[in-house]
Amino acid sequence: MNKLTEKHLEKSLTYEEYRNLIDSLLEQNKTTGTNHSDKMLEYSRLNVHRMSRIDRTTKLTPETVLQMKKLDQNRIWVVLTEAWCGDAAQNLPVIAKMASVTDRISLKILLRDENTDIMDRFLTNGGRAIPKLICLHDNKLNVQWDWGPRPAPAQNLLRIHKTKQDESHEDFVKQVQLWYAKDKSRTLQQELLTLLALHG
Question: CA–CA separation, 99 vs 126, rounded Å?
Fold first, then answer.
């Protein structure tokens, strides 16, 4: 129940392959998943620009770089995601950047809707919320910990939003994106460092 298999990982993508896949699909007026509506295409195109900006501008903190380079065990980070997901666009580039500074972490990206058997083991409040990062022991593929779909303060904004019947989903999205812009990935970096320190 709590284990991923080599078969799952065989179909995984690197971050570069994931980005290239999205670009290729958008050229065909498609996105990942089965819903290729204008709205989903618009989200995906926006996310390409968002990820490119974050790739270019995100700076890992000195503490993050130091702690990542100190890791002494090999781990696999599996991220479940989709191109149209705004939270994935904010967090996945940072996760990829963190993994890139150490040889101890292998980042493998899986599309949520092609891997619902995995996704349904890591639901958030009963929902298939993404991105979901799952840390595996390199050899046994045992799950060590998981994170997602967004840093705790952003998740709290969602909880507050659900109590406000007069606030639109668009208003909530604007609030979250503003939080991400101000936070500059510092909270995400710290949350992942804490999980690594606690569980390896």
Answer: 28
3-state secondary structure of 166: coil
Q: Are strands 132-137 and 75-81 parallel, antiparallel or unpaired?
A: antiparallel
- What pLDDT was estimated at residue 3? 64
Quote the CA–CA distance of 18 and 103 in Å, as a whole number.
Answer: 20
Share of the chain above pLDDT 90, in %: 81
**What are the structural domains, with CATH classification, of the chain?**
6-199 (3.40.30.10)
> 134 and 78 in contact (C-beta within 8 Å)?
yes
- Give the up-direction half-sphere exposure of residue 117: CA atoms within 13 A in the CB hemisphere: 7
The residue among 173 and 29 whose pLDDT is bigger is: 29
DSSP labels, 59-87: ---HHHHHHHHH--S-EEEEEEE-TT-HH
Cα separation, 139 vs 75, whole angstroms: 8
The model carries a pTM of 0.94
Give the span between the Cα atoms of 170 and 131, in whole angstroms: 19
Written as six digits, the tokens of 34 are 């089965």
Q: Give the contacts of 195 (CB within 8 A, at least 6 positions apart).
A: 135, 145, 147
